[in-house]
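[agent] plan:
  1. take the single chain provided in the ticket
  2. run structure prediction with default settings
  3. attach structure tokens to the ticket
  4. add a short note for the reviewer (M.T.)
[agent] executing step 1
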Amino acid sequence: MIDPTHPPTRAVPAGTDKTAALHKAAQALEASFLAEMLKFAGTDKTPESFGGGIGEEQFGSFLRQAEADAMVRHGGVGLAEKLFEALKARADGSG
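[agent] step 2 finished; step 3 output follows
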């Protein structure tokens, strides 16, 4: 989930509340995508010598999601912008 206490580095497009909601949804989708990519990249794997146990495994998803949210706040990979444009075009009836 995108943290509202940390505003995005990219400006939210001006417009209606509907436009802001579409932009927020696009950012949330990009963050979810990035969290899954981080999971498959194995970024949360600890060296064998530390072995954090079952608690580490259970809370790893929260860390991945927080990292993905931070990535999106700092520009992400551009997926949110593409998703936003597609969602906006569909909402405007031109897509």
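[agent] step 4 note for reviewer: The mean pLDDT is 81.
[agent] ticket updated
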